[in-house]
Amino acid sequence: MRFEYPKGVRFRCLRCSLCCMDTGSRERRILLLEAEARRISEEASIGIEKFVLDVEDEGPFKYVMRKENGRCVFLKDNLCSIYELRPVICRFYPFKLERVLGRGLRFSYTEECPGIGRGPRLSRTYFEELLNYLRENLEKAPRNDRSQI
Known about the structure:
alpha+beta, 3-stranded antiparallel β-sheet
């Protein structure tokens, strides 16, 4: 699959948790695939309705993570309590993926993340791994939802 990525970008997660909450400049919407919500529910032994709300017209995403006081419900002491189960959206941050007509997919990033510009330069392999993770999770989505990314 063809994709573009920001060559030479450096990134290291600083564990600041800004990606897990609303800020003064934006509302954080953590979208989830149906399979992700089911996996979190099963492995964390919590009912889906306790941590998500239904959404419409968000492509393959069926839910948005609930928040308490503008913070993800799974953010405890500024750490993700479901880190190994975290959704695709969280794994991608501070990067996002968009389809560019005639060019395939393109990764971009937000400058608001303080981890941008720190750490190692990210290679094509890093972005390939993100795409593979997304692809694996989309395969679990109903067929009519898969083509919407």
